[in-house]
Design goal:
Elements (H helix, E strand, L loop, with lengths): L7 H5 L2 E6 L2 E6 L11 H16 L5 E6 L4 E3 L4 H6 L3 H19 L5 E5 L2 E3 L1 H7 L3 E5 L5 E3 L13 H9 L1 H8 L4 E2 L1 H7 L4 E3 L4 H14 L8 H12 L3 H7 L9 H6 L1 H19 L4 H16 L1 H16 L2 H17 L17 E4 L3 H13 L4 E4 L3 H20 L5 H8 L2 E4 L10 E4 L5 H14 L5 E4 L6 H5 L8 E6 L8 E6 L5 H13 L3 E6 L6 H17 L4 H11 L5 H8 L1 H15 L10 H5 L40 H21 L6 H12 L8 H8 L1 H15 L7 H9 L7
Parallel strand pairs: 2-3, 3-5, 4-6, 5-7, 6-8, 7-10, 11-12, 11-14, 12-13, 14-15, 15-16, 17-18
Antiparallel strand pairs: 1-2, 8-9, 16-17
Length: 746
């Protein structure tokens, strides 16, 4: 240890100091925390450490490194942000952070950031203020400013430093979408100066610090490397690609983008236009981040920092940010749970997975099991063609990842080798879990279950990827009913984030915990629900889709109906969704739901002629929309199969959206009241991640609370009087209103 040691306040914030020769090594390792985060006390302790290091003649340079195994700094302490009550308070917090990193950037001695693991948000802002940045080549190392995903913007100088370092265009692409990049991409962009293997990070960082001190290392950077990298990415699309294609790529030079007022105006006007197109004004954070970057480029860093702090303050106390932060905490809590009421229940090891069915779902499940869970997978289908389709699908996803450089060819080949297939049960003798993804037919599923139980070990789990058939019915007559469970994936499996696990009354706790752990390893957000027809997500989707069908039967225009729900906040409209899912699939699920819940949830007959006409949707390129390779638009010939024919009515967009959305919310409340859901939290997570319920509204239950349960009841009663029993308010809602409470405490 050198003469300088960390003070008590610094140690309390996880900062330690030691002298390595003449280089001060600052290790950040917050005690009893899984990751390092930033807060005002951390910033104050860090600033004090800088002051003493500057005065200590024995310290010639500094190296900052994390003491965590796989995390540098994960960002701001979100819990602290939740305690902020006013925009002025949040703005002051932003200014404090800016001052600390300004102090770091102006530090008269060389400063090196040694990055391993997550370097996100405030963590990257910290690193950007350093004079040299080294990252490890580990897949655990991710770099970015993802604040917009929480309804915020970088508030400690990130909107100013990143554009100054890599150019406005590359910075816009990262900040406005909240993207993270791998170390190799960060190096190409110019965010980091060097990428090294994990074991030598500390050694190289200390060496570079000494080289900066003695002048043998000169840091020379230009925006060009950042612009060049985003130009290559632009070929793939996205905001960066869009902006690169505004005119001839050659004319978009750094001067045109940043120093030329006309070039800047075109750049920012187009960026704002595209943001509006994507967010429809529902997510203010990207637009405010864009504004902070624009002010900095036009009026200088001081003005840019002031704009950043002011806009950060506005966002922290906004309803949208509050809802997105609540979702963040909900998903974080789910990661720590095992899906049962008993915290001590342990998941059993899963070393091999069997998948039944080689369709889109089976192939997707095989991919996430091999690529993300990392275990061997055996796929069975009834014929070689089916097996071939599954293997081809998995191969295609790997090839796409190689193309996007998220995997090397060698890594993809190694993971692909984990997937094998056949037309019989060879290879299933030692599987730990069988995931069935065959046709939605109870008789077929029961027959396959019997075959699986005859050839697998006594402790093998059987999980059905069903979207509507009750798991209790599937388990009836099974040899091992305690090991029967539902694992409802969403299509496309490799992209959709939710996994809905369904337990029946006899499902063993260890089975639930094991399947929850499988889902987590597959990269899924997992909710566990109790059994019932349609479970949770399919059940609340049914009345939503039914209401859209009723609207079409009343004469609504297809495009106007879809647009109304997109304006409400759903990613796609209900009729577009019907085409994507398959009109025939919806037709098969409808009788199951009606048999369980009666006329209240009965589908209208409006689509009978559509199905009879052979229209399945996108899969046979014949549905409500055209799929001829040109611009997708409504296939007007479908109107002849609907009530009112081609004569469409102009219905009120807000009422169309509300009728559909309130059906989903009301059914979600029923599910909570009937015990299908374990909590309102799980209901919100399931609706957002599984069905695209608007995240900025927080999910059905947060939305109900924001309206007020009494107002929700009033609106449902209005529609009940107008349209009948399908709008009958959920008993749990009536009880909630009588009790004067809300679905969330506080």
């Amino acid at each position: 240890m050198g003469a300088m040691v960390a003070q008590e306040s610094e140690v309390k914030q996880g900062l330690s100091f030691q002298l390595e020769g003449d280089i001060g090594l600052v290790v950040f390792n917050q005690v009893d925390e899984p990751v390092n985060t930033l807060s005002p006390p951390t910033g104050a302790a860090f600033a004090a450490l800088l002051d003493r290091a500057e005065k200590d003649a024995a310290v010639k340079a500094l190296v900052f490194i994390s003491g965590k195994k796989d995390s540098f700094v994960a960002g701001a302490k979100i819990d602290f942000l939740q305690t902020i009550k006013t925009a002025a308070e949040a703005t002051a917090t932003s200014r404090d952070g800016q001052r600390v990193f300004d102090r770091l950037e102006a530090f008269p001695k060389p400063v090196v950031a040694a990055i391993h693991g997550a370097c996100l948000g405030g963590g990257l802002e910290w690193a950007l203020a350093c004079h040299y940045r080294i990252a490890t080549d580990s897949p655990k190392t991710t770099i970015g400013l993802p604040e917009v995903q929480l309804g915020l913007l970088p508030g400690a100088g990130g909107t100013q430093r990143l554009p100054a370092l890599i150019g406005a265009q590359a910075a816009l692409d990262l900040i406005l979408a909240g993207k993270t990049v791998k170390p190799s991409k960060a190096k190409r962009l110019g965010i980091v100066d060097e990428v090294v293997p994990v074991p030598i990070l500390r050694e190289v960082a200390l060496r570079r610090a000494r080289e900066l001190v003695d002048g043998t290392l000169k840091v020379e950077r230009s925006h060009g490397q950042g612009l060049k990298a985003v130009a290559q990415q632009g070929k793939k699309g996205g905001l960066g690609g869009l902006l690169m294609g505004l005119a001839n790529k050659e004319m978009w030079t750094e001067v045109a983008l940043e120093d030329n007022p006309l070039g800047r105006k075109v750049l920012f006007d187009q960026a704002k236009k595209q943001l509006r197109k994507k967010t429809r004004g529902k997510f203010p954070a990207p637009e405010k981040a864009l504004e902070a970057i624009r002010v900095g480029l036009e009026s200088g860093r001081a003005a840019g920092l002031e704009a950043e702090a002011r806009l950060f303050g506005e966002l922290v106390v906004s309803d949208v940010s509050k809802r997105l932060v609540e979702i963040f905490f909900a998903t974080t809590a789910l990661k720590k749970e095992n899906g049962t009421d008993k915290a001590d229940v342990k998941a059993r090891p899963v070393k091999k997975v069997g998948v039944l069915g080689g369709g889109l779902m089976g192939g997707g499940i095989a991919y996430v099991s091999s690529a993300l869970q990392g275990v061997p997978v055996r796929v069975k289908d009834k014929d070689d063609a089916g097996v071939g389709r599954a293997l081809k699908q998995v191969q295609g996803i790997f090839e796409e990842r190689v193309k996007r450089r998220s995997l090397t060819s060698r890594e993809a080949a190694a993971k692909m080798a984990l997937v094998t297939g056949g037309t019989d049960y060879s290879g299933f003798k030692n599987v730990d879990v069988v995931i069935e993804a065959v046709f939605e037919d109870l008789t077929l599923k029961r027959r396959i279950l019997g075959e699986v139980e005859a050839v697998t070990r006594e402790d093998c789990i059987f999980a059905s990827n069903t979207s509507s058939i009750p798991i209790t019915q599937l388990a009836e007559g099974a040899r091992r009913p305690a090991q029967i469970i539902g694992m409802h994936y969403f299509s496309p499996v490799h992209k959709m984030p939710l996994l809905e696990i369904i337990t029946h009354k006899g499902t063993a706790d260890w089975v639930t915990a094991t399947c929850v752990e499988i889902g987590k390893k597959q990269g899924k957000t997992v909710i566990v629900v109790n059994d019932g027809p349609g479970f949770y997500t399919s059940r609340i989707l049914a009345p939503y889709m039914n209401e859209a069908a009723y609207l079409l039967a009343e004469g609504a225009d297809i495009a106007e109906l879809d647009r109304a729900l997109v304006e409400f906040g759903f990613p796609v409209g209900p009729i577009t969704l019907l085409d994507e899912v398959g009109i025939d699939v919806a037709q098969k699920v409808a009788p199951i739901m009606e048999a369980a819940f009666g006329k209240r949830i009965a589908a209208p007959k409006a689509f009978d002629k559509v199905v009879a006409d052979g229209r399945l949707g996108r899969k046979n390129k014949k549905g409500f929309y055209t799929y001829d390779g040109k611009k997708k638009e409504v296939d007007t010939s479908v109107y002849e199969l609907l009530p009112h024919g081609r004569e469409r009515k102009h219905l009120d967009a807000q009422e169309m959206a509300e009728r559909c959305a309130l059906q989903m919310v009301n059914e979600a409340v029923r599910c909570l009241g009937e015990g299908i859901l374990r909590s309102a939290r799980d209901g919100d997570v399931g609706a957002i991640f599984g069905l695209g319920f608007p995240a900025f509204l927080g999910g059905p239950f947060r939305y109900a609370d924001s309206l007020g349960p009494a107002e929700l009841l009033r609106r449902l009663e209005h529609y009940h009087d107008k349209y009948g029993e399908r709008f009958e308010p959920a008993p749990a809602l009536v009880e909630k209103v009588k009790a004067g409470g809300k679905f969330y405490p506080g």
